Amino acid sequence: MGLIYTRRVKQLRKKRDSTGLIELLLNVTCSGKERRGAAVALGDLCSSRAVGPLISVLDDYVVRGLAAEALGKIGDQRALEPLSRLMNTSDNPIVARSAERGLAMLLGR
Questions:
Q1: Which tens digits make up the pLDDT trace of 4-47?
Q2: CA-closest candidate to residue 58, choices 13, 15, 89, 19
Q3: 54, 64, 68, 63: which is closest to 99 by C-alpha?
Q4: Half-sphere exposure at residue 38, Cβ-oriented, CA atoms within 13 angstroms
Q5: Which of 58, 67, 109 is nearest to 85 (CA)?
Q6: Domain 7-106, architecture per CATH
């Protein structure tokens, strides 16, 4: 994907610290780069604890596309409806495509 993690995200990812990554994801005072990195890292860790927080940021313009794909990687069925809604209502074709990819991963396609 070409995402370059910040030092903090790298450290949290290496420790498999989903709590710390969730805090970063939700902290709107953090840089967009850190928040986007946290979304990707949570997907890579397949953290089921991250499903709720990732769903909650699907309306956040900074991280919503990467959050959608992270939800697909995690594969939790709770993300099905929110990803479908994002795919069908987003006016941004890039975000809609990210939601579509997330759904495809979630459904094993």
A1: 789 999 999 999 999 999 999 999 999 999 999 999 999 999 98
A2: 89
A3: 68
A4: 28
A5: 58
A6: Alpha Horseshoe (1.25)
**Buried b or exposed e, range 24-54, using 16+ CB within 10 angstroms:** bbbeeebeeebbbbbbbbbbebebeebbebb
- Give residue 73's identity as a one-letter amino acid code: K
pLDDT digits (tens, 9 = 90+) for 46-78: 989 999 999 999 999 999 999 999 999 999 999
- Tell whether pTM > 0.90: yes
Dihedral (CA of 31, 34, 49, 82) sign: positive
Where along the chain do its domains lie? 7-106
Q: What are phi and psi of 70, to 5 degrees?
A: -65, -40
Look-up of token digits 């979630």: 106
> How long is the chain?
109
